[in-house]
Structure formats: C-alpha cells, structure tokens
Amino acid sequence: KQHMARGLPKQKPIAGVKQVIVVASGKGGVGKSTTAVNLALGLTANEPSKTVGILDADVYGPSIPKLMNLKGNPELTDNNLMRPLVNFGIPCMSMGFLIEEVAPIVWRGLMVMSAIEKLLRQVDWGNLDYLVIDMPPGTGDVQLSITQHIPIAGAVIVSTPQDIALLDARRGAEMFKKVNVPVLGLVQNMSVFQCPNCNHQTHIFGKDGARDLADTLGVQVLGDIPLHLSIREMSDSGKPVVVSSPDSPEAEAYRKVATAV
Ligand code: ADP
C-alpha cells in the first residue's frame, strides 16, 4: 500500500528465477536481440550446470522466435501458466508465440502493459539460474515499468560505436542508474569489419565510441563483437553463432561477454 501511495509498483521476483539480466539498447537495430540470444547461450556454454531462459519483452517487434528457431503456441499448465518453448536447451517466451506473425497489432499503452504483465507473471519457468530479458529498444514507460516490477541483477547495454547510437545508449544507462539497477557494462557491437578476401579491417561505425562512453559512465566494456556476415546469416536462419560455430572468433566474443556479466 505504501508503495502504491508513492506511485511505485511493488517489486516481486519472477517465480523460480534466481537472477534476471536485462539486455537493453537506446535504439533499435544495434544488435540487442542477437546479443541477448548469444549471451544466454554463452552462459550455458560457460557453465553447463546452470539453467538459462530467455524472455522476449520486445512486444512491438519480437525477434526471439526467429533467432531461436521456435514457433507455436505455448501449452498451459494445470495452474494456467504458459509453458516456454525450448530450443538449444533454452526455454523461451515471446509475444511472437501468442500472436500471428503477419497480423499487425496496434498496441495501445494499456495493452502493452498487460502483455508485459502476462509475460512477466504467467510463465512456468521451472527453476532458472538466469533469465535473460531482451528489452524493447529505448527508454520509455514499458522499459521503466519492467525495471520497477521485478528485481534485476544487472543490465547489459548494447551499442554500436556510432555517435547517435551512443547518445541513446547513454540515456539507457542513465535510466537504469535512476531506478538503481546496476549497469553491468556495455557491449560494443559491429565494432570492426574484417574483409573476408583481404583481411583488411574497417571500423564502419567508428572505433572506440563505446569504450569512451563506458569510461564516461564509469562502467566496463563487456566485449567487442565484430560486424560479421556469419552472425547475420546464422541469426537469420535460427542458428545463433555460439551454438552453430562455437569455435569461431565471433562465438568466442559472445562467450567473453557471458563470462564478464
Ligand atoms: P536489435 O535487437 O537491436 O533491433 P538485432 O539483434 O535484431 O538488433 O540485429 C539487427 C540486425 O543486425 C539483424 O539482422 C542481425 O542479424 C544483425 N546483426 C546484429 N549484430 C551483428 C553483427 N555483430 N554482425 C553482423 N550482423 C549483425
């Protein structure tokens, strides 16, 4: 009641989940979902005894079904909870499992909140050591509301080294600080492109932008992910690099992020 009086919803843990790690970005298209998926797979690759799940909180543009090669409707348990769909040993839940892929949804504010509420509270995760949440891009009401409803162990912020993406990432980092969610660090994505023919390296989006921002914010850089064709191709075909080419430098880069969080 006191919380309500101050206008703050009460934080309640997600049943069965030990630690929540959110993966966020200031804007779309910087590789947040790709990082979330490979981070989750990296966590199990590094510690096979740990159980890891993925919650796709990006209700506007759910990409976990495609990235994890999953589709179908979740079954309901006897308690009317949704059973996650599982691939590569990772239980996943996404709005994409609950709506038609092609049906356009005109989300209104309240509908978004009730969809998020459903995804946060009506899933039977079993027991998870880590739940990785793929957040919607940006720093609006939905993101804020998620941080206020559940306890979060830490946030990973994904950005390209480009100025504009960094500005948005900074806004994201400041939002988490404001609500007392520890920022675990930044992932600098698409930092370097190595030509597969001549091996020349090009910094398409700039070089050390995320590193400089991390210094400014006083957080660490958890890893540098190169701009690599196989990351895009594997993501599109639902076989994330950490499982499909575990010996590649790209997979190694994601596992390094998983070690650092
Ligand atoms: P967001 O979740 O931030 O919108 P996505 O993870 O969906 O971004 O990535 C956007 C696009 O960029 C996807 O096609 C994805 O495959 C591609 N992508 C992401 N990271 C990389 C990378 N390091 N190298 C190549 N392509 C990437």
From TrEMBL:
GO terms for biological process: mitochondrial respiratory chain complex I assembly. GO terms for molecular function: 4 iron, 4 sulfur cluster binding; ATP binding; metal ion binding. Transmembrane segments: none annotated. It is found in: Mitochondrion. The keyword Metal-binding applies. It comes from the Eukaryota. GO terms for cellular component: mitochondrial matrix. Its cofactor is [4Fe-4S] cluster. Keywords: 4Fe-4S, ATP-binding, Iron, Iron-sulfur, Metal-binding, Mitochondrion, Nucleotide-binding, Transit peptide. Iron-sulfur cluster transfer protein involved in the assembly of the mitochondrial membrane respiratory chain NADH dehydrogenase (Complex I). May deliver one or more Fe-S clusters to complex I subunits. Belongs to the Mrp/NBP35 ATP-binding proteins family. This is Iron-sulfur cluster transfer protein NUBPL.
